[in-house]
Amino acid sequence: MNTIITLDEFIIQRQKDFPYATGELSGLLRDIGLASKIISREVNKAGLADISGQAGTENASGEAVQKLDVLADNLLISCLQNSGECCGIASEENTTYVPIQKSKNAKYVVLFDPLDGSSNIDVNVSIGTIFAIYRRVSDDGECELKDFLQDGVEQVASGYVVYGSSTMLVYTTGKGVNGFTLDPSIGEFCLSHRDITIPEKGKIYSINHSAFYKFDENTQQFIEECIKNGCNFRYVGSMVADVHRTLIKGGIFIYPSTSSSPNGKLRLLYECNPLSFIIEQAGGRSTNGTQRIMELEATELHQRTPIFMGSTDMVDRVEEIITTNSKVMTKS
Ligand code: AHG
Ligand code: MN
Ligand code: MN
Q1: CA 54 – CA 57 distance, rounded (Å)
Q2: What distance in angstroms lies between residue 255's CA and the mean position of ligand 1's atoms?
Q3: Are 183 and 208 members of one domain?
Q4: Separation of 129 CA from ligand 2 center, angstroms?
Q5: Which atom in ligand 1 lies closest to the alpha carbon of residue 113?
């Protein structure tokens, strides 16, 4: 029989990778694992209990909030509040960050998108949770805005959970990427995907094609090339699921700037940075077209950015198109 390694065992084994680690980061990762098991349970019975549908409110970005968004948000906040290792959280669903008073001197802050792909909840399509962990930069005491507005390169860990045909948790602490599948019969995430690497060459492109005529010319040119080159097109509409497929099968995931949303739709702190850390750790690339996503300066909590991420060959090509076209523009 193969030896089963649970998420908790794996986290403890890996703690030795950090010579001065005191176990707080490991504790935080375990708490997020626990919260996501509860979210997974709730997601799985969404059609049965009165938890699907809209909550009747809007979030900080003006989008309709679903009941499961609220539930996932509350669950994560309460698990992190009880953990003692986190001095504050910021979530896509809350206008501002939330300091955690009872562990206000703790070293870490956690940022998350509690439920990504909300529009897919009611139709039983994969959705997910995305998280990023940073060391605080402020002194002891209540956390401050600057603890959350850090560059993506400062992440100490990030990951996601995809509630799909099975529930999977994938995370990195900057030493490769590992994936765990939830075995519902024992209620444990078990190591199923060790040291994940993204294929260097991709053959799948993923973008909301219906907005083609709203994309800038560079993105249009790249998409036309993908079609001419015989690439496949896939788009779930939950970033976490689209990026998960991109990680495993290779390809590119794009949410570009559009004429109606010049900064794209996706949020730098809750979606783009954590998933970029995973993709880069797996050997891929992530850019806004001219700059590495994880080096973008964060100036506000709900900041958005265009994003191109995935296999190196495809991200390189889209960047090449952008650079070449901007040179032509400056010459003429
Ligand atoms: P969220 O549900 O957290 O608001 O995120 C939804 C995002 C993302 O998951 C997905 O990639 C994108 O919205 C889809 O947007 P379009 O419908 O514009 O393609
Ligand atoms: Mn999202
Ligand atoms: Mn969300």
Answers
A1: 8
A2: 9
A3: no
A4: 8
A5: 3
Nearest CA to ligand 1 atom 11: 239
Report the CATH number at residue 83.
3.30.540.10
| DSSP assignment letter at 141 | S
Could you give the CA distance from residue 247 to residue 253 in angstroms, rounded to a whole number? 10
My answer on whether 13 and 89 are in the same domain is yes
Q: Ligand 3 mean position to 5 CA, how many Å?
A: 30
Low-confidence ranges of the chain (pLDDT < 70): 1, 19-20, 49-51, 329, 331-332
Residue 254's nearest CA partner among 292, 284, 209 is 209
* pTM of this structure: 0.95
Atom of ligand 1 nearest to the CA of 208: 19
Shared domain for 160 and 298, answered yes or no, is no
> How far away, in angstroms, is 2 Cα from ligand 3 center?
36
Give me the residues near ligand 2 (ion), CB cutoff below 5 Å.
Answer: 113, 116
| Ligand 1 pocket test target in 257, 259, 265 with most atoms within 8 Å of CB | 265
Q: List pocket residues of ligand 1, CB cut-off 6 Å.
A: 63, 92, 113, 116-118, 208, 237-239, 265
Measured CA distances, 33 to 36, 130, 178, 181 (Å): 5, 12, 14, 11
Helix axes 24-44, 67-83, angle to 10 degrees: 150
Q: How far apart are CA 182 and CA 51, in angstroms?
A: 22
Cβ-based neighbours of 116, under 8 Å, separated by 6 or more:
127, 128, 129, 130, 160, 238, 239, 240, 271
* Domain coverage including residue 327: 204-331
